[in-house]
Amino acid sequence: MAEARARGMKPRPGPSALWPRALVLCLLMAVLQALPLSWRELLRYEVQALALGQWWRMLTAHWVHLSWAHLAINACGLLLCCSLADATWTARRLLMRMTVLGALVSLLLWAISPQVNDYVGLSGVLYGLIVWMLLPPVLLHRDGMAAMVLLVVMGWLGWQSWVGPDLREQRLIGGYIVTQAHWFGVLGGILGVLTGCSRQLRGRELTQQSSAGAPPDETQVK
After folding, report:
1. CA 82 – CA 89 distance, rounded (Å)
2. Cα separation of 95 and 170, whole Å?
3. Where would I find the H helices in the chain?
4. What is the distance between the alpha carbons of residues 165 and 157, in angstroms, rounded to a whole number?
5. Tens digit of pLDDT per residue, the chain (222 long)?
6. What is the distance between the alpha carbons of residues 189 and 106, in angstroms, rounded to a whole number?
């Protein structure tokens, strides 16, 4: 820290730097949930409304929820994601990646799952965030704890897809769980990681090859 200040560099933020912004986002979701139902319906993902050109719903749908219980679960999930973030995650990066994930989830629902007529909630984005935060340490540093958490999350999502959403959870949130959105969020997280880490992985591979050294050319030895 002292060295960074001496050189005039800003210290890189840690996970705690995300908490104020995450709390603001939770407050925003609470304000939206308190709006009249007729107002919230203008923000939810609806296939028929998208066909009429109401494309803003692809982004706003992830910030409104079925119920206060649904909101509370996703707010806790957002705070949990922030606790998993490393020092490369800034508040600006968090917002940008959440926006990208939300847009991708909505686009894939619209293009691949037209049977999903309506959707609300942040859960698809949260699944993408978890992957985006935990997969880089696994690929770059072989982090066993991050790999274990990812396996648990993927196992739970796979179980939900195999046996169907939990009925008690659906009664709690007040609606049907759209597992397709969760998988689309995971896909978005994987694509984000591969895009961001490809250069680092390629550089590490080249470094390993150069350190190993190339075998001598037999024709030159002769």
Report:
1. 9
2. 28
3. 2-6, 19-33, 37-40, 47-51, 57-60, 68-84, 91-112, 123-141, 144-163, 167-173, 179-212, 218-221
4. 9
5. 444 443 433 434 455 678 888 999 999 999 999 999 999 999 999 999 999 999 999 999 999 999 999 999 999 999 999 888 888 888 999 999 999 999 999 999 999 999 999 999 999 999 999 999 999 888 888 888 889 999 999 999 999 889 888 888 899 999 989 999 999 999 999 999 998 777 666 655 555 555 555 555 554 444
6. 14
Element (H, E) at 45: strand 45-46
- Closest by alpha carbon to 12, among 97, 129, 91? 91
The whole-model pTM stands at: 0.83
Return d(Cα 41, Cα 49) in angstroms, integer. 10
Nearest in space to 122 (alpha carbons), one of 195, 19, 33: 33
CA separation for the pair 9, 72 (Å, rounded): 38
Alpha-carbon torsion 172, 178, 181, 185, what sign? positive
CA distances from 215 to 13, 202, 206, 211, 222 (A): 44, 21, 15, 12, 14
Contact assessment for residue 190 and residue 131, using Cβ atoms and an 8 Å cutoff? yes
Name 119's bridge partners.
45
Residue 74 tokens read as 């996703």
